[in-house]
TrEMBL record:
It comes from Methylococcus geothermalis. PANTHER family: 5'-METHYLTHIOADENOSINE/S-ADENOSYLHOMOCYSTEINE NUCLEOSIDASE, 5'-METHYLTHIOADENOSINE_S-ADENOSYLHOMOCYSTEINE NUCLEOSIDASE. GO terms for biological process: L-methionine salvage from S-adenosylmethionine; nucleoside metabolic process. Residues 33-175 form the Nucleoside phosphorylase domain. CDD domains: adenosylhopane_nucleosidase_HpnG-like. This is Phosphorylase.
Amino acid sequence: MTRIGLVVALPAECRTLTRRRPRRGEPVAVSDTLHLCLSGSGPDNAEKAAHRLAAEGCNALISWGCAGALRGHLASGDLVLPTEIACADGTVLPTHPDWHRGALRYAETLPCKLSTGRLAASDGVIHGRDAKRALAATTGADAVDMESGAIARTATALKLPVLVIRAIADDAATAIPRSVLDALDPHGNTRLPRLMAHLARRPSEIPDLIRLALAFRAASATLRAMRPHLHAPGKF
């Protein structure tokens, strides 16, 4: 039996899968064949979560959550099912081809735009327009996140199939407000009091924050639409 382990960086992304509130680093069962681990953001946290899921008996791994667009043809709420991940060290790792094809067949029934182009893995937040353009040029990627590279490396080392399912939050023209970045804790969670304090000093960033919140809502809706596929991933 295939037991799927999903690595999910943030609590808000976990809510697209379950109403439960998992503790960071502790795998929880969503169903008999589906487990998730709230990792916290970044490659180190993702790697630890992937190993923890494998130790709990998961024999297939998914990187699940949001991504940032690097190219203008992708908008908030679009779905990214990459065939390969360009890691920060220059390594390019493939997702499992058969599993990817099954996910793609399901995704093509959804109303959102779909990208199967390369995903770039970053060690940190890529938040500026110029930084996004530069990363697209150097990697050939359509989108970026911080966890998929580490999850793919772990899956490869453990000889497990891996799939990446990501929805676009910020598009290529969107710069994440400085107030948001300054309010993040080491695990990627937003410290609300600190965010409010920064916004009080930078009120001009409030419209950008509202746009980012709406973008995340669109991405979350796409992830929820993709969720039924997780219960029928196909055979390996």
